[in-house]
Specification:
This protein is an alpha+beta fold. It has 2 domains: about 1-75, Phosphatidylinositol 3-kinase Catalytic Subunit, Chain A, domain 1 (Ubiquitin-like (UB roll), Roll); about 75-105. The protein has 3 helices and 5 strands. It has helices spanning about 25-35, 35-40, 80-105, and strands spanning about 1-10, 15-20, 50, 55, 70-75. The radius of gyration is 22 Å and the shape is elongated.
Length: about 110
């Protein structure tokens, strides 16, 4: 048996569950055994992305856990970070253009 943790967090609520699991247990299996979906309604442990200590796992159904691992259950992204940066840059460019137009018309 090995000792692991499974963690999930929202902005206002976090929980870490300590588990003892058999050697060879996969990350997805540990997440399912954690029971965190009982504490967080709407949490889909079958589909949620998982990671170990902040590093995402591509295939959590195949990733064997080691002593002391912390399985992290990630929330889905609400917006693509690249798209958000693009939109922010576009707004900044528009504001700069508007400011330049005001400066030119004031002269």
């Amino acid at each position: 048996m090995i000792n692991i943790e499974v963690a999930y967090a929202l902005a206002h609520k976090q929980k870490i569950v300590q588990l003892q699991v058999a050697q060879g247990t996969h990350a997805r299996e540990a997440a399912l055994r954690s029971g965190l979906d009982q504490d967080f309604p709407g949490l889909d442990l079958q589909e949620s992305p998982l990671g170990i200590f902040g590093k995402g796992i591509a295939r959590p159904e195949e990733h064997c856990l080691e002593e002391g691992d912390r399985v992290e259950i990630y929330r889905p992204l609400l917006a693509d970070p690249k798209e958000v940066r693009k939109q922010r840059a576009a707004r900044a460019a528009q504001a700069k253009a508007a400011e330049a137009a005001q400066t030119t018309s004031a002269d």
